[in-house]
Amino acid sequence: MLTDHDHQEWRHSSFAEYIIYEVATRKVTRLTETGQRATTSYAKWSPVGHSVMFVRDNDLYVKVDMKLEVRVTYDGSSTIFNGIPDWIYEEEVFTSNFVCWWSPNAQHIAYLRLDETNVPEYNMTMYVEKQPREDSYPTEVKIRYPKPGYPNPIVTLHVYSLASPAPTTKQPVRALEFKKADAFKDEDRLIVEVAWMGNSNLMVRTMNRSQDVAQLYLVDATKLSATFVREERGSVDGGWLEIKQALRYIPAREGAPEGYIDLVVHDDNDHLAYFSSLAADKPAYWLTRGNWEVVDGAAGVDLVDRRVFYISTERGSTERHLYSVSLDGTNKQALTPDDHGFYEAKFSPHAGWYTLSYKGPDIPSQKLYSTRDPKFERELSDFSWLKEAVAKYKLPTIRFSTVKSAGYDLNVKEYLPPDFDPAKKYGVLFRVYGGPASQLVTRAFSPGFDDVIASDPSLQMIVVIVDNRGTGFKGRKFRVAVRKQLGTLETIDQVNAGRAWSKLPYVDPKRIAIWGWSYGGYMAGKVIEANSQVFQAGISVAPVTNWHYYDSIYTERYMLTPQENPDGYEDTGIRDPDGFRHANYLLIHGTGDDNVHFQQSAYLVNMLTESSVDPSHYELQYFTDNNHSMGQHGAYFVIWRRIIAFLHRVLPLQTGSA
């Protein structure tokens, strides 16, 4: 199956013309002969047979055995989505372009229906989408974008069976009902995970709007009946629950019933648990345990040898290593060396094979392994081309360490110039993201702008990255401390780190700046607002400046709703101008940002203007029609040049500096 005339919609979604190429006959045909061309937003082959489900104009279809085209839904519209997510479910829940799933035997299709009729619209002006000779007026793009406290889309689960009569407008596929007494109401319910458990059962995870209660249901796909299985609550430590797609089906074997694996909070960390039946509400075995975390659930499951493979942080929160463990929690084995490395693993469907990618800190490599034959090893790539390219440059020296803040050890990554001389004085540029459950400080090899800054002899700067409280992979206590007060503890940690570096003998304390993108832009603004006198400059790219203006699902996970936490929303916006009077600040944003709206920067500039902050202390660079990634009209590379020019101007080399 090939695509043509692809057109990007949002971060993960696009429209295209889907084309079927028959290998044996070399015949090429359109997937569907109905409807307009290049309007299909998703298509997926069945796991067995030759059927394809696809979504066009927000309606779900299935082409059975590439012959009969069946229309499954009829109500798709600009506000009704069947089988694909709307904007917020694409961005914040599934991070993908589909919400429809074949059963393993290809006899059923489970899908979500999202109704965003009551979601308010955000209007975004696109100024140069058309040439002036075509149209003198800008284009208005309307997005159903729920902000905190406003209605979310109503989501329902449906299952279509290919053996049943084709649906009609009068007899549509009915929605699943969650009949538990305290099941979440439609307006309060998120559906965050759907996983097939064999050919006729589904597991469905729902959450409340604030994402601190999760309910797991077992669904009989043939009867469309839901049985409550278990509940998780973030209230045990005052935190939220992470959205995850970690459920793994374990078929019945040798008298043992079918069960499942899930990623569950255990002793302050995310760990793998094996539930010995689909109705089990408590684990039969904890497959992992300890003061470290499993990353993203089970990486692979070998049902022949009854082994589960996973990536974890057991050897350090900045590292990733591959392990295996038996389904009863015994016979744990490390499959990567204790080399302070960062590894990723991808397994074949039955976990007979896997690719192991070494991601750093040295030059990456990739090998193929067999789980059946421990002697089998084949190198797929040694990235020799990258080794040759890197050898041509003098790159910074990278050091890993920690810095204390409020009794916590914060992970640090420091880039020292190639010819670093500890007897000289260097400026420091802090790069920050700092958002909940994120991580910048890892052992992965990731050359980029940090290397450019640290290698530029005209700047003479060190780059420092600090993962503050709220970031991931150091346990829930560290992570959920920021709930209801985003930007508060994180700012304290970044300022404390800045103060610690300002006292180092090789640092010029008058040349310290901080910059970040998105949540990192918010953090840079909060640090300047803090008026610590530690940072002389800040740079924010596409920042949040007021949490009232960001999307509901992300924001309410950490802040609750404005009705539940009014003081928190008031306190966490960037609203105090004094820090901006004592520093230099560069604000960059794209006017076509569908994620963090240009409204955020407009709000901040208005606050600075109304507060009579000297305009010589702040600068604004906007990029016309650019989205959150700044990839349009050449903006991306201009940003880097703009940042470097700003640093040269506001933090010039002083006499006696390096």
From TrEMBL:
Q: Which GO terms describe its biological process?
A: proteolysis
Q: Where in the cell is it found?
A: Vacuole membrane
Gene3D superfamilies per the UniProt record, alphabetical: alpha/beta hydrolase (3.40.50.1820), Dipeptidylpeptidase IV, N-terminal domain (2.140.10.30)
Signal peptide from the UniProt entry: none
Q: Classify the main location.
A: membrane
Which is one GO molecular function term here? dipeptidyl-peptidase activity
Q: Is Iron among the key words of this record?
A: no
Q: Name one Pfam family in it.
A: Peptidase_S9
Q: Which UniProt keywords apply?
A: Aminopeptidase, Glycoprotein, Hydrolase, Membrane, Protease, Serine protease, Signal-anchor, Transmembrane, Transmembrane helix
Instruction: Write down the membrane topology.
Output: Single-pass type II membrane protein
Q: Where is the Peptidase S9 prolyl oligopeptidase catalytic domain?
A: 459-651
Annotated Dipeptidylpeptidase IV N-terminal domain residues: 6-364
Can you tell me where the transmembrane regions are?
Answer: none
Instruction: Read off the InterPro entries from this record.
Output: AB_hydrolase_fold, Pept_S9_AS, Peptidase_S9_cat, Peptidase_S9B_N, Serine_Prot_S9B/DPPIV
A GO term from the CC aspect: vacuolar membrane
Which stretches are annotated as coiled coil?
Answer: none
**Matching PANTHER family, A to Z?**
DIPEPTIDYL PEPTIDASE 10, ISOFORM B (PTHR11731:SF200), PROTEASE FAMILY S9B,C DIPEPTIDYL-PEPTIDASE IV-RELATED (PTHR11731)
Please state which protein family the record places this protein in: Belongs to the peptidase S9B family.
Instruction: Tell me the protein's name.
Output: Dipeptidyl peptidase IV N-terminal region-domain-containing protein
Organism of origin: Syncephalis pseudoplumigaleata
Upper lineage is: Eukaryota, Fungi, Fungi incertae sedis, Zoopagomycota, Zoopagomycotina
